[in-house]
Amino acid sequence: MSSLNRKSSITLYSRGVCAFSHRVRLALAEKNIAAEIIDVGDDHLPEDLLDLNPYNTLPTMVERDLVLYSSNIIMEYVEERYPHPPLMPVDPMARARTRTYLYRMDHDWYSLLGDLQGDDAGKADSARRTIRDGLTLLAPVFAQKSFFMSSEISLVDCSLAALLWRLPVFGIELPAQAKSLLQYADRMFAREGFRASLSFAERSMR
User: Fold this and answer.
1) Which among 38, 73, 115, 150 has the fewest CB atoms less than 10 Å away?
2) d(CA 46, CA 56)
3) Alpha carbon distance 88, 166 (integer Å)
4) What Cα–Cα distance (Å) separates residue 23 from each residue in 39, 158, 163, 168, 194?
């Protein structure tokens, strides 16, 4: 992630296998924003992070006196603070739709990541089916556009790509009717920004 580690006023506390952290790293990379990435292990959080974030969650971003600790809030701040190249549409209605897509993705899929990685096999199987079926239903969207509902990449694509990268680890295999989504995934994974966003642990997922 050398493109993210140039000297910068931004520090991002990130976990190498965390999808929430990954989508923030991807947004930064797509915008070519330099950031100091601090990779936080699974065993304990650093003392300075505990002081910064009362919820002790990742990712956490610091820029000067500003501390943010929700991945969607971080991505939207980055978009507004560094507007070029844009990852949100200019039109207010289109921006509202993009926020709605992000909300639905979090509610329907990202909320299940804990079940996928938990000890309850029944919950994990249910989560796999929900994500697989939801992605399969979504697949036709990508038959007409290069990105999600658009010809330009957006924050929705950052969130979706981080999830799609993890499907093999989660034991989720998409059916043949999701071909257009799989082709979209290949296009996203080939992007320079996506490659730059990957942690060492994420590179070993595929």
Assistant:
1) 73
2) 10
3) 24
4) 14, 5, 9, 17, 10
Per residue in 36-58, pLDDT (tens digit) is 999 998 767 778 888 899 988 99
How do the domains of the chain map onto residue ranges? 2-86+195-203, 92-191
Q: Which tens digits make up the pLDDT trace of 159-180?
A: 999 999 999 999 999 999 999 9
94: its two tokens: 């289109």
Phi, psi torsion values for 174, nearest 5 degrees: -80, 145
Q: Give dist(CA 196, CA 25) in Å, integer.
A: 9
Structure-token pair, residue 140 = 């036709």
Residue 171 in 3-state DSSP? Answer: coil
- The three-state secondary structure class of 144 is coil
For 62, list phi and psi in degrees, rounded to 5.
-125, 130
What secondary structure, in 3-state letters, does 55-118 show?
A: CCCCCEEEECCEEECCHHHHHHHHHHHCCCCCCCCCCHHHHHHHHHHHHHHHHHCHHHHHHHCC
Domain 92-191 indexed as CATH 1.20.1050.10: yes
Q: Look at residue 36 and give its three-state secondary structure.
A: strand
- Look up the CATH number of domain 2-86+195-203: 3.40.30.10
What is d(CA 121, CA 159) in angstroms, rounded to the nearest whole number?
25
3-class DSSP state of 19: helix
